[in-house]
């Protein structure tokens, strides 16, 4: 038999989605894969019912239905202050997942380098490999997850053609400050690099932090390939709707990549989701309050249990420090956690390029009832997963 491709050998299946399967096997509460248990806004589901009867049911224009792109351009202008041409500067994709890989494929030739902050959302490593690119990791140091500008400069100086910037960041919960974004912009300019941003959590940011669109920095729209998504903002992770916003020259190329990867995102779902893109600002303020309450509830619960954790500034994840349990493998810890405690988590090592065995990631995009139940189960951690070794 012929050998299968080296590209498909060089990365594992998604550890996040593997943990969901493990949760299902043990009946654990799934705080591993980050999807909410909130229903989508009723306006979207009502519209979906209408669309089921009236259509469209055939392909949309490959780069996205016109009314969806128009609504997206208006929303983006409202939040970022940037005017874009919905005809030439937007590409609708099957989630940010497709947007990200299409962006890397649009920028990178085989052998090119792409800089990635670590810890990172696990897709980026696979995206680089699938595109034949080499990821150069730049550490963000816990617990503040700040980065060393010299280390970033080194990555650019080594030839990185693009930086992948996840802001707000999964799994660290970091929201990049203006000063940090300006440092990145200065280096991107100096080394003539693209910045591929993943901004799926743009609306899940906790006071006093504010989301700043990298493309809104002076001179940066030309270098930015922004990947966004409706998954988290409207609780519709299963609808698979995302997008790229970038200059026309980039979008023209990305359209071709997308056309042959997927042809297009589901047309009935684009139609039904357009109403969400037209929501008033109060929707996003309420979303922020909603997740702030969940964060406060979950983190204070962890504090009461004496469980050490990071303090997210955005997104809906928390890294819990498990070093005191003395496990050699964070994966083994997560399997025991699912089986013996009944809570699903993702081993932190799935997100770090550095040797790291200290963290597990939990998400708090669940109802208060479910989070309470998870906290009750976590109370049995010391008893079920061994003696703590207080440091
Ligand atoms: C940082 C980040 N990017 C992308 C995605 C996936 O987004 P989508 O559902 O739009 O593909 C996720 C999902 O958890 C994520 O956390």
What does this structure look like?
With 391 residues, the protein is of the alpha/beta class. The longest helix has 24 residues, at 281-304. It is built from 14 helices and 13 strands. Helices cover 42% and strands 15% of the residues. It is globular, with a radius of gyration of 21 Å. The chain starts with 5 loop residues before the first helix and ends in a 7-residue tail after the last helix. The strands form three sheets. Strands 2-9-8-7-6-3-4-5 form an eight-stranded mixed beta sheet, with helices on both faces. Strands 10-13-12 form a three-stranded antiparallel beta sheet. A two-stranded parallel sheet has the order 1-11. It binds pyridoxal-5'-phosphate.
The percent range for strand residues is 5-15%
User: Major β-sheet, in short?
Assistant: 8 strands, mixed
- Helical run tally: 14
Largest sheet, spatial ordering of strands: 2-9-8-7-6-3-4-5
Label the structural class: alpha/beta
- Based on CA inertia axes, which overall geometry fits? globular
State the end-to-end distance.
Answer: 54 Å
Which hetero ligands occur in this complex? pyridoxal-5'-phosphate
The proportion of residues forming helix, as a percent range, comes to 40-55%
Q: Count the strands?
A: 13
Rg for CA atoms = 21 Å
Average pLDDT rating: 96
Oligomeric state of this protein: single chain
The sequence of SSEs as H and E is: HHEHHEHEHEEHEHEEEHHHEHEEEHH
Low-confidence stretches: none
């Amino acid at each position: 038999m012929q050998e299968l491709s080296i590209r498909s050998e060089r990365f594992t299946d998604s550890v996040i989605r593997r943990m969901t399967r493990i949760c299902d096997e043990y009946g654990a509460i799934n705080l591993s894969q980050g999807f909410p248990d909130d229903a989508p806004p009723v306006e979207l589901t009502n519209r979906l019912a209408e669309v089921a009867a009236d259509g469209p049911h055939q392909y949309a224009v490959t780069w996205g239905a016109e009314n969806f792109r128009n609504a997206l351009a208006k929303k983006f202008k409202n939040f970022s202050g940037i005017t874009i041409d919905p005809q030439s500067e937007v590409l609708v994709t099957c989630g940010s997942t497709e947007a990200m890989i299409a962006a890397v494929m649009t920028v990178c030739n085989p052998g090119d380098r792409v800089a990635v902050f670590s810890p990172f959302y696990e897709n980026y490593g696979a995206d680089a490999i699938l595109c034949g690119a080499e990821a150069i990791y730049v550490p963000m140091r816990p617990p503040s997850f700040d980065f060393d500008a010299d280390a970033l400069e080194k990555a650019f100086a080594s030839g990185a053609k693009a930086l992948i910037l996840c802001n707000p960041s999964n799994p660290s919960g970091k929201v990049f400050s203006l000063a940090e974004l300006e440092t990145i912009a200065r280096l991107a300019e100096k080394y003539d690099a693209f910045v591929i941003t993943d901004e799926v959590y743009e609306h899940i940011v906790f006071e006093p932090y504010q989301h700043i669109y990298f493309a809104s920095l002076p001179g940066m729209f030309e270098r930015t390939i922004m990947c966004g998504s409706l998954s988290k903002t409207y609780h519709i992770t299963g609808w698979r709707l995302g997008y790229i916003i970038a200059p026309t020259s980039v979008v023209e190329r990305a359209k071709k990549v997308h056309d042959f990867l997927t042809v297009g995102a589901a047309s009935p779902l684009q139609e039904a989701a357009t109403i969400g893109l037209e929501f008033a600002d109060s929707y996003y303020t309420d979303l922020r309050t909603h997740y702030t309450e969940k964060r406060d509830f979950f983190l204070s619960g962890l504090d009461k249990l004496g469980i050490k954790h990071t303090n997210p500034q955005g997104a809906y994840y928390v890294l819990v420090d498990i070093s005191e349990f003395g496990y050699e493998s964070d994966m083994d810890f997560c399997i025991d956690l699912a089986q013996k405690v009944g809570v699903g988590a993702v081993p932190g090592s799935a997100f770090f390029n550095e040797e790291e065995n200290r963290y597990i990631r939990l998400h708090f995009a669940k109802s208060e009832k479910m989070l309470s139940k998870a906290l009750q189960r976590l109370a049995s951690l010391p008893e079920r997963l061994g003696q703590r070794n207080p440091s």
